[in-house]
């Protein structure tokens, strides 16, 4: 285990966090908590590819590529085809204990 390092000054900065899918907000909250270990930014903005709703914490993206209303038992899948194009799809999430 090594210590984390941020190669810039956090204190007073505007920080942009980038995430693929915003769902419960817990991973964003964890990232914000870690940032505070390095100082207090002036602002924290959030950019996400997909905002799927279902928040457990009051966190909202500043920018999002798409907003999708997706049931809790559905996963969002990002894939790349042979030509390198990205595609989004949904699939039924496996039941707990099943892979």
Set out the fold topology.
Layout: E1 14-22, H1 26-36, E2 43-51, E3 63-67, E4 74-80, E5 86-92
Parallel strand pairs: 1-2, 2-3
Antiparallel strand pairs: 4-5
Explain this structure to me?
- It is a single chain.
- With 99 residues, the chain is mainly beta.
- Strand 4 and strand 5 (86-92) form a beta hairpin.
- It has one helix spanning 26-36, and strands at 14-22, 43-51, 63-67, 74-80, 86-92.
- The protein contains 1 helix and 5 strands, in the order E-H-E-E-E-E.
Short description:
The chain has 99 residues and is mainly β.
List unreliable stretches of 5+ residues.
Answer: none
How much helix is in the residues? 10-25%
Spatial gap, N to C terminus: 30 Å
Task: Quickly count the helices.
Answer: 1
Strand content: 35-45%
H and E order: EHEEEE
Major beta sheet, specifics?
Answer: 3 strands, parallel
Principal-axes shape call: globular
Structural class: mainly beta
Total number of strands: 5
The largest sheet has its strands arranged as 1-2-3
Radius of gyration: 16 Å
Mean pLDDT: 90
Q: Any key phrases for this structure?
A:
mainly beta; 3-stranded parallel sheet; two-stranded antiparallel sheet; 37% strand; globular
